[in-house]
Design goal:
globular, lipid metabolism, Rossmann fold, two-stranded antiparallel ribbon, fatty-acyl-CoA synthase activity, ligase, 7 helices
Length: 188
């Protein structure tokens, strides 16, 4: 089994080099500014509207209980524009500002990621396993102006907020409400 693989290895190497050389010789003009949300997501949405691309889900999420969220390119574009407006208007964020998201794997994580791309806001992902000490360190090091988390992780954030001089807004993802927090669902 090793000999044929070794022979294929040489074949693959020559194909890779050939492919690399063809790419290297190709002179593609790079855009001065590139935004995934508008240059890819919105473009695919328009292709679907025009009938030049078959309708496929842009996002399909299923949880352990079998609940699912399915967004088309048009829906994801629309929702990400609304979320970008929430970040810009309600949270007061501007292009280049940083937002930290400490969320479990929920659809809003991806929605906020695209919204940040759309608005030029730096998205800093954090796992839901972070401790209060971890959150504090990341908020201080990044100088994030906003944090987004779930209602179960909000107490850990609240315990470190007094030590975070750059933090201006707190956004909660979920159905609950907390004093001093904005609720994403309500704002959307």
């Amino acid at each position: 089994p090793c000999r044929p693989f070794h022979g294929y290895n040489r074949l693959l190497t020559s194909q890779i080099i050939s492919y690399y050389e063809s790419i290297h010789q190709y002179k593609k003009e790079l855009p001065e500014y590139f935004n995934f949300a508008s240059d890819v997501l919105d473009e695919w949405s328009q292709l679907e509207k025009d009938g030049r691309k078959p309708a496929n889900p842009a996002f399909w999420w299923v949880n352990e209980e079998g609940e699912e969220v399915k967004w088309s390119f048009e829906e994801l574009g629309f929702l990400s524009r609304k979320a970008a407006n929430v970040l810009s208007e309600a949270c007061g964020l501007q292009r280049g500002d940083r937002v930290m998201a400490v969320l479990p794997r929920v659809p809003e994580w991806w929605l906020l990621n695209v919204a940040c791309m759309r608005a030029g806001i730096v998205f800093i992902p954090g796992t839901s396993q972070l401790t209060a000490k971890d959150i504090l360190y990341r908020l201080q090091a990044s100088k994030a102006k906003c944090i987004i988390t779930s209602d179960t992780l909000a107490p850990a954030v609240e315990s470190v907020v007094p030590d975070c001089q750059f933090l201006k807004s707190k956004l909660i993802v979920g159905k609950g409400s907390r004093d001093g927090w904005l609720n994403l669902q309500e704002l959307l």
